[in-house]
Amino acid sequence: ALDVGSGSGFMTACMARLVSPTGRVYGIEHVPELVDLARSNIGRRNADLLERISFTVSDGVVGLPGQEFDCIYVGAAAETVPQALVDQLKVGGRMLIPVGPSTGFHNLVQVDVLPDRRVTAKSLGAVRFVPLTTLDDQIRGVNTAGVGRLTRLDDNGESVLILPHIVPAPDSSPDQYVLHKT
User: Fold this and answer.
1) Which of 31, 52, 109, 124 measures 20 to 30 Å from 76, CA to CA?
2) CA-angle at 27, arms to 11 and 85, nearest 5°
3) How does DSSP assign the chain, residue by residue?
4) Handedness of CA 114, 120, 121, 124 (dihedral sign)
């Protein structure tokens, strides 16, 4: 399983509890201090899980090239579903990713790879996440997953990185459509 934007490690630990006893979970986070925090958080109460979890400091927009996953969870909104992440899903694999403009509400999208390698996507409802960006663009306030600027907090003139969060919103009508691989 792959956790893109692993942050504090909460979802990574949840995924490690859900995979089989021999399963592995990979967390990608572009903020090194958050990777340290995630390891510490998991180590305090779930140290046994660290044997099955690997963290990588990297920009998650491209996932982990060369790997395939049964499950991918993305903790930040992309303007469109990144093809690089779709390509890393195994047949029968599933990804959950918030999709939409860099500001406002997003659709939580379930992406599935069918046995014939067709890719389907279904909206599960409205959510609100921070944009999926590279670290450099997040610091500069640019959203590489779409257009617009990443909202930044200013504390005595210094930029503060914003961590992902979900805000419930009115449910959107569920859509199902097929994404075509290029």
Assistant:
1) 52
2) 100
3) -EEES-TTSHHHHHHHHHS-TT--EEEEES-HHHHHHHHHHHHHHHGGGGGTEEEEES-GGG--TT--EEEEEE-SBBSS--HHHHHTEEEEEEEEEEES-SSS-EEEEEEEE-TTS-EEEEEEEEE--PBP--HHHHHHTB-TTSSSB---EEETTEEEPPPP-----PPPPP-EEEEPP-
4) negative
> Do 108 and 125 meet the contact criterion of CB atoms below 8 Å apart?
yes
The two tokens of residue 87 are 């390509």
pLDDT in tens, 127-177: 988 878 777 776 676 654 443 333 333 344 444 443 333 333 444 444 444
Tell me how long the chain is. 182
Tens digits of residue pLDDT in 55-90: 999 988 899 999 999 999 999 999 889 999 999 999
